[in-house]
Structure to design on (199 residues):
């Protein structure tokens, strides 16, 4: 009997970017909860040195590691790309991405502009970038405060300062979504995913 060749089309990389609190994580996890889409799309999980927020789970939201462990992973070339945000390190695990893409599974990422640029450079033909915009800076502030009561005032101010800069890069992304109503934003993201994943 002839062995059957498995030739999967490599999966696509969907990068969701936008300021902290704009709703990237919420939108991506809701998209994956959709029965049809959940079979096709998985969420990439990053490694970070940022402390865990209440409600976040080790290995589900992030792989929380120490600075030494992060450095060791970078040195061992186990991190595809990484960034520093407000003094903490964040990186994309290489093995996880390569394995999923080979299997033909699409992968969703929540990354900053630097991460989006690097992945687009590594995977120029199968990367789609989406920027999530908040309705206003006041709403963004309220969402950051509402997400985690323990986030200190200084960090909220720093995240908002970063947000103003990050919003200026929105034009560099393939798509932009305004996240005023979660329902409407999710509908738009779903439409983008279905169009791009079958392209
Ligand atoms: P990000 O991943 O971009 O930092 P999150 O997904 O953690 O942002 O969202 C920040 C907070 O805002 C969360 O508490 C989330 O539930 C809330 N949120 C997200 N989108 C909306 C929306 N459209 N309306 C109201 N609250 C929202
Ligand atoms: P947060 O602390 O709000 O979870 O994340 C801070 C910022 O780091 C967000 O813009 C988020 O998208 C980005 N980020 C999270 N993980 C990674 C990663 O692995 N690589 C890059 N480049 N950015 C990341």
């Amino acid at each position: 009997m002839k062995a059957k060749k498995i030739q999967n089309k490599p999966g696509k990389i969907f990068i969701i970017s936008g300021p902290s609190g704009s709703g990237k994580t919420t939108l991506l996890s809701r998209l994956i909860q959709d029965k049809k889409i959940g079979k096709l799309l998985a969420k990439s999980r990053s490694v970070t040195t940022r402390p865990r927020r209440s409600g976040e789970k080790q290995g589900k939201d992030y792989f929380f590691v120490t600075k030494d462990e992060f450095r060791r992973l970078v040195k061992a070339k186990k991190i595809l790309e990484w960034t520093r945000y407000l003094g903490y390190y964040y990186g994309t695990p290489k093995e996880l991405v390569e394995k999923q893409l080979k299997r033909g599974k699409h992968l969703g990422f929540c990354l900053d502009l630097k991460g989006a640029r690097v992945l687009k450079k590594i995977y120029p033909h199968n990367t789609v970038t989406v920027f999530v915009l908040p309705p206003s800076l006041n709403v963004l502030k309220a969402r950051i405060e509402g997400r985690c009561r323990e986030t200190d005032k200084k960090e909220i101010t720093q995240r908002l300062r970063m947000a103003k800069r990050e919003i200026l890069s929105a034009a560099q992304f393939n798509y932009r979504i305004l996240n005023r109503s979660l329902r409407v934003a999710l509908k738009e993201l779903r439409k983008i995913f279905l169009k791009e994943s079958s392209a």
Q: What stands out?
A: The radius of gyration is 17 Å. The mean pLDDT is 93.
